[in-house]
Amino acid sequence: MRKSFYVSNDAVIYETRNNRLATPANFSPQFDAHAVAEPGFRIYIIEMTEDAVTTVNSWQVSYTFLAGHEYRVIIARDPEVSGEIANFEEFVNAIRIKYESESYYIPSWYKTYIVSKVETINTTSKNSCNGDSFVFFTDYHTLSNAENSHDLISYILKHTGIRFAVFGGDILNEPDTKEDAYNELVRFYKNFYDINPYYVIGNHEYNNPAMEDSRVPIELNQKELYGILCKRKECAYVSRDSVNICDYAFDNTLQKIRYVVLCCWKNATIIDSQIWWFADILKDTPNGYKLVVLSHIGLSQQGSILTDMNVVPDILDALKQQQSFTWSGSTWDFTAKSIDVIGVFSGHNHSDYIARTNANIPIISTTTDAKGQALVQRYTRNELEQAFDVVNIDITNRKIYMTRVGYGKDREISY
Questions:
Q1: What is the pTM for the complete model shown?
Q2: pLDDT per residue over 230-271, tens digit each?
Q3: Are strands 257-262 and 330-333 parallel, antiparallel or unpaired?
Q4: How far apart are CA 279 and CA 328, in angstroms?
Q5: How many helices (H) and strands (E) does the chain have?
Q6: Do 402 and 316 share a structural domain?
Q7: Are 74 and 212 contained in the same domain?
Q8: Domain that holds residue 112
C-alpha cells in the first residue's frame, strides 16, 4: 500500500519524496486528515546524518527545520517502541524535507565527489568546445530510486557549460491504477521542472510494460504522455510525428547538430508507423549537419543491438553510406545527403554497453539511475547509488566523452 500525503503552509505544498523546504525554517503545517489520519499509522520526523538516523520524533504541531540538515517525514505502522519506529520495512511513504538556500541540496556523501566530477566535466568540455554537451539520465523508476539525481544534475548545470538534459525513459515502476501512474508522472515532471529535460518516452510510461491484458484499462496513451512531459518544449521542435506524437526533432543550429527523439511503445518496440517519419526527417536534415538519435531502446542486456529497434540501424547505415533505403514499398534516396551520424544514445537494458552497426555507428546504452533496479547491487547513502552520464561531443576529433556520475565508469567513444 502506498499513500500520498500533503503538507501545506499557505501556498506551499509538499508532495511525496524529494522535496525542498521553501518556507522559513520554523513553520506549523496542517495535515490532510483523509490522506494521513488512518487507524494503525503514526507520523514521525527523522533527522538524518551522514551515517544513520540520529533522532526520531513523533510529529509536533510546530517543528524547527535547520538549514543544511536532512529530514524525512515518515508514515509508519504502529506500534511505537521506545520512541523509535518498530519496523523500517513497513514504511508506507516518505518525503524528504530539506531547507537549503539553493534550488538543490547535495547530500554530504556527494559533496566532495561532485566537486571533483565537475572539474573533470569542465576539463572535458574545454577539449570539445566544437560540438555539444548534455546530461543523459534514464530508467529512473521512481519507487526504486534514491532521488538525488535532480540535485546533482542541477549542480552540474550550474557549475559547468553543459547545455541541456535528456531523460531517456522509464519514469514509473508499475502503479496499480491509472490515476497513480498519472500522478507519479506529474510528480516527476514537477521535481525536474527547473532542469526541463527533453523527454524520451519509455515502455514503463504507458503503465503496461508487459502488455498484460489485465492492465489495459489502466494504461496511459501517447496523447496523455505528450501533455504531461513533452508539450512544454514543443516550440523547440523542428518536426514532430503527426501520428506518433512523442517522436520529435530539435536542432543546435550553431553547431549544426540535429537530435531525433524516437520513443518506444508499451511493448518496448519501435513500431512500423514510426519508420516513415524517422526516414523522412533524416532525408529533410540539411546537408552538413551531424545527427544524434535519442531512443529508449537500443541494446539488449548482453550488449547486442535489439531487433525491436526495427530497421532504424539499417536506415542510419544507408544515410551514412549515402545509399538509397527501401522498406515496405517506399524508398528514401540518401545518395545526395551529406550527414555525419554521431550515434544513438539509449537506456532500457539497465546496463552500460556500446555496440556498432554494420557502418560502424555507435549505439550506446546507459545503465539505470535507480539503485533498486540495477543489475549490480548499489548501496544507499554513498556516491554510487545514482548513475547517469554527462556527454560531451567533440566534432573536431570525432569523439564522444561520457563522464559517469555515480555507479560505473567514464567512457570515450570514437564515431
A1: 0.79
A2: 999 999 999 999 999 999 999 999 999 999 999 999 999 999
A3: unpaired
A4: 12
A5: 7, 27
A6: yes
A7: no
A8: 108-414
